[in-house]
Each structure stands twice: as structure tokens, then as C-alpha cells.
Amino acid sequence: MNPKIRHVLQRWLAPIAFAAVVGTHYSGSPWIGVLSGMIGGLLFATCATLFLVPTMFSLVHGRDRLTAEPAPGHAPAPQA
Questions:
Q1: Could you count the other beta carbons within 10 Å of the beta carbon of residue 26?
Q2: Residue 15 neighbours by CB under 8 Å, 6+ apart
Q3: Confidence label for 37 from pLDDT (cuts 50, 70 and 90)
């Protein structure tokens, strides 16, 4: 597994596991809402960071690469 992905997953899994353990201990208490919000926020933020941000970045900056003119002194890229 890629070390960068492994590091992201470890940092993501630790708070969720903590919230799940604390949630089972405090079942039936008002902390359940806080813990479920924490787990949901971590899941959403991780998915957005790993999938949504790179996709949006490539969509926005991918067009710039196609329409950009070559820098002065550089030959244009050959067309395939």
C-alpha cells in the first residue's frame, strides 16, 4: 500500500475508532449525537479530501494546460 495513503487512513481511522469505543460506553447518553456528528464529519472530510478535491483541481487546472501558450524560449509540445 502507498505510504501516503496508509498514513491518511491511519490518521482517519484512529478518531473514528475512539468515537465508536466511547459511543458504546456512553450508549443512551447525550454524547451519542456529538459522536455520530464527529464520525460523519470525519467520513465526509476524508472522502472530500481523497476524491472531490483532486477531481475539482484537475477539472479547473486541466483546461489551463490545454489552452496555455508555451513559455518564451520553449518549443510547443508535439501533438500526438
A1: 13
A2: 38, 42
A3: confident
